[in-house]
């Protein structure tokens, strides 16, 4: 582990497995803001979830962990009311966790290329290229996902190396094209309306967005997309898509983003 804040986040998530209470002290009880809409705000909300854990408790396996300034973000495999794939984002102030966002979805079988929601590269490289890689992903999300422009697609995405971990999509631009064709033919939508955050460390970039997904006109969803880059091009992608419940069902007033 190469940073104290990363160590704290991994210890907190591993406490699901061990029952160790020490990592709770890494959360600032006076300022903790919760964006998981199924959980009450503050440390009390976190505690309520833990008290209502099923027999055997929750389990967490941190597959990837990254840091961007005051933010630490993880790609985690959970047993949390069933097997889940998740991204968690934690914001720190003065060495304490003060804010948390996440996106969770059920674990699915391998995709048409045999890839899972968790496998693939984990090694962080090219830290000196963090900002440049952010710009590539910003451009991809803005041009391709938000505005449907395909002019620079093969410049932004390496067409011969692109590996896909979305459970329904195969590798390569052909797999992406087939998925888009299926959506069009079945009156389904995958719309990105707004990007809320872009976080990165080296060759990995995470975007947090909202939009619509599913049978037209689509459900209101949060998109968390993790991209890996090589030589200024996207070469690998993982994602978690989660419906955003109506406000009447929220357990806190902080919003998803």
Overview of this protein structure:
The protein is of the alpha+beta class. It folds into two domains: 4-109, Nuclear Transport Factor 2, Chain: A, CATH 3.10.450; 127-243, Nuclear Transport Factor 2, Chain: A. It is built from five helices and ten strands. It has helices at residues 4-18, 42-51, 130-146, 153-156, 172-185, and strands at residues 33-34, 59-68, 71-79, 83-93, 96-106, 163-164, 188-201, 204-215, 219-230, 233-243. The chain has a five-stranded mixed sheet with strand order 1-5-4-3-2, with helices on one face. A five-stranded mixed sheet has the order 6-10-9-8-7, with helices on one face. The chain is globular, with a radius of gyration of 18 Å. This is SnoaL-like domain-containing protein.
Question: Can you give keywords for this protein?
Answer:
about 260 residues; 5 helices; globular; Nuclear Transport Factor 2, Chain: A; 10 strands; 2 domains; five-stranded mixed beta sheet; single chain; alpha+beta
